Structure formats: structure tokens, C-alpha cells
């Protein structure tokens, strides 16, 4: 069965929920954002909610394949809290993605990165590199 996912924002109804990022209690009436997973299987419905403090979100939650998820219940919040969530979303979208740089090594750099064996018959003739420890 396919799982539905969406985001939900609301004020905490009690002190029984912990933030999934910092593992600290989300206090009553504090703003929280939840990532909700719904799965229907043979008439039964399973749901899982993962809650976050607003200030603990460093990356906007996405679906399994990186797709954007709809945000529900935004209109039920105070106007100032709606603006906080919208500003957070915009700031996280504007951040550049952390892409790993791929460095192509020259033959000389490749040669320097590996242990050079001068003479296979004489193990005492092995040069050590910074990345290599002789055992």
C-alpha cells in the first residue's frame, strides 16, 4: 500500500510530545510542525506523526522521493505565527544545497596518495604516506 505524507502545524495541546530533532518536550500552546505518515491497509488506518519545534527545523521535511508536501492547518494559527512559518519556509528554500565537490586527481596526486612499494622482495623498502600507517 502507498503511504500518504503531509505536514501539519498547530499549537501543542499538552506537554506530552517531544521534538524529533532535539528530544525536548514541546510545551503546551507552543507552535509545532508535524510530518504525518498515513497508510491504509485492509480497512485499517495507520498514522505516525513526527513533531518538531519551529526553531529545530534546519531542512524543510519532504516526501520519500524529495517531493514537497502540503502543509495543513496554517490558517488556524495566529497571523504572526503564520508569518513565522512562511518566513522559515522561504529561508530554507533560499539556502544553497550542500553539494559535494568532486576533485579529479592528476596522476601525480594519485601516485602520492598511495603507498609506493620500491621493492616487493624487501618489505623494509615501503614508503609511508600521510594517509597510510604501516602495521
UniProtKB/TrEMBL annotation:
Q: Which Pfam families match?
A: zf-PARP (PF00645)
GO: which molecular function terms? DNA binding; zinc ion binding
Q: Which UniProt keywords apply?
A: Metal-binding, Zinc
Q: Where is the PARP-type domain?
A: 7-93
This protein's superkingdom? Eukaryota
| Name the UniProt record assigns to this protein | PARP-type domain-containing protein
The organism of origin for this protein: Paramecium octaurelia
Amino acid at each position: 500500500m502507498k503511504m500518504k505524507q503531509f505536514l501539519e502545524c498547530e499549537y501543542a495541546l499538552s506537554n506530552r510530545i517531544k521534538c524529533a530533532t532535539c528530544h525536548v518536550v514541546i510545551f503546551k500552546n507552543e507552535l509545532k510542525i508535524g510530518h504525518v505518515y498515513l497508510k491504509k491497509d485492509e480497512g485499517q488506518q495507520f498514522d505516525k506523526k513526527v513533531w518538531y519545534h519551529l526553531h529545530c527545523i534546519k531542512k524543510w521535511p519532504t516526501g520519500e522521493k524529495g517531493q514537497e508536501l502540503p502543509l495543513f492547518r496554517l490558517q488556524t494559527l495566529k497571523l504572526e505565527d503564520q508569518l513565522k512559518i512562511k518566513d522559515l519556509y522561504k529561508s530554507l528554500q533560499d539556502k544553497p544545497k550542500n553539494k559535494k565537490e568532486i576533485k579529479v586527481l592528476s596522476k601525480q596526486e594519485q601516485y602520492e596518495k598511495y603507498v609506493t612499494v620500491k621493492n616487493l622482495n624487501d618489505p623494509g623498502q615501503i614508503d609511508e604516506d600521510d594517509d597510510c600507517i604501516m602495521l
